[in-house]
């Protein structure tokens, strides 16, 4: 269990993290979401003991990060922002060095290095200096060093930034498979990543937590929760008939896609049956029809553009 209590960080007069409190347990993958400069990286730096908080405490499996930094850091793997490394070492030298720092030697060290090289598909760059690698490979080396000691806690600052789609997929699979026995905290700007890997999402802005819920709970707060989109083979204006359906709050149309309508429900009501009944009674030919669970980008925008008066959503 990680427990964070009223964590704060100021740089001069500027308050980057303004009293964050939460706990995370084993098996959880917590995603930090937030606009640029929200305080995500600064929070991660304090969780890992990389910078000292101005106030508040961090406890990692009972070890206070300031009082017992070695015990806490032993069980943490950290991919910092930008994945810094010793650039003049080759990938193989760098990973062996990190394994040694983590206390491994001999066959154990070699098997640790081979395992992460396989997990992050680094075979083709093993003998190249880290500085000469592409951004995606550097990030994969950064993840490899973070997991080399099989830590109980993984803190990954934008782990898939700069990766190609195949590697993004592979790293998300890796995070999912590692998460069963660990606590994983990631930061990301990719909203689809939250639904793909996180069991819980925290939206942070101006150094404060604005929402802390499962991705599905957050999606359910969107006006598109249970919205129904239909695409019809017809040029007729069907808008009035759809707007008049019971439970429909609004109907959105698209200039670029005539025949496509999105019905927004009022008060969390289902409009699916009313719409399909209307389609059947009119004999309209349907090209496509689907119900949405909600849109995270919509919720993100709403929460992070309403200023700091927003209440915490749980
Ligand atoms: N060492 C520092 N000195 C002064 N200001 C800092 C320092 N580190 C961070 N900040 C400021 O604190 C705020 C939070 O930065 P942080 O890097 O935590 O944001 P972030 O949410 O990770 O943003 P991004 O998504 O852009 O990475 C920013 O305004 C940043 O400029």
UniProtKB/TrEMBL annotation:
Transmembrane segments: none
The ABC transporter domain, residue ranges: 2-231
Superkingdom: Bacteria
InterPro entries from the UniProt entry: AAA+_ATPase, ABC_transporter-like_ATP-bd, P-loop_NTPase
CDD domains tied to this protein: ABC_DR_subfamily_A
Keywords of this entry: ATP-binding, Nucleotide-binding, Transport
A GO molecular function held by the record: ATP binding
Pfam families the record matches: ABC_tran (PF00005)
Keyword Transmembrane: no
PROSITE patterns referenced in this protein's UniProt entry, alphabetically: ABC_TRANSPORTER_2
Family from the record: Belongs to the ABC transporter superfamily.
Protein name as it appears in the record: ATP-binding cassette domain-containing protein
């Amino acid at each position: 269990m990680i427990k964070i209590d009223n964590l704060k960080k100021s740089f001069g007069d500027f308050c980057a993290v303004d009293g964050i409190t939460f706990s995370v347990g084993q098996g959880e993958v917590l995603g930090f979401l937030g606009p640029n400069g929200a305080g995500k990286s600064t929070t991660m730096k304090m969780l890992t003991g990389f910078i000292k908080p101005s106030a508040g405490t961090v406890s990692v499996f009972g070890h206070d990060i300031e009082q017992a930094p070695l015990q806490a850091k032993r069980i943490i793997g950290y991919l910092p922002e930008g994945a810094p490394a010793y650039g003049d070492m080759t990938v193989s030298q760098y990973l062996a060095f990190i394994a040694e720092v983590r206390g491994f030697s001999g066959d154990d060290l070699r098997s640790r290095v081979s395992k992460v090289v396989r997990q992050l598909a680094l075979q083709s760059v093993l003998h190249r200096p880290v500085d000469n690698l592409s951004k995606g490979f550097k990030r994969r080396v950064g993840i490899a060093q973070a997991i080399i000691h099989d830590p109980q806690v993984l803190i990954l600052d934008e782990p898939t930034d700069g990766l190609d789609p195949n590697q993004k997929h592979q790293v998300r699979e890796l995070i999912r498979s590692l998460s069963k026995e660990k606590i994983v905290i990631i930061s990301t700007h990719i909203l689809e990543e939250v639904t793909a890997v996180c069991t819980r999402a925290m939206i942070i802005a101006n150094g404060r937590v604005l929402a802390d819920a499962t991705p599905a709970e957050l999606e359910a707060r969107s006006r598109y929760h249970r919205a129904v989109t239909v695409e019809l083979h017809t040029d007729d204006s069907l808008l009035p008939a759809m707007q008049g359906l019971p439970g429909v709050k609004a109907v959105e149309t698209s200039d670029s896609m005539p025949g496509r309508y999105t019905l927004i429900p009022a008060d969390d009501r289902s409009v699916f049956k009313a719409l399909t009944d209307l389609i059947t009674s009119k004999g309209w030919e349907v090209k496509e029809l689907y119900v949405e669970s909600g849109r995270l980008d919509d919720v993100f925008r709403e929460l992070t553009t309403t200023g700091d008066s927003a209440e915490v959503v749980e």
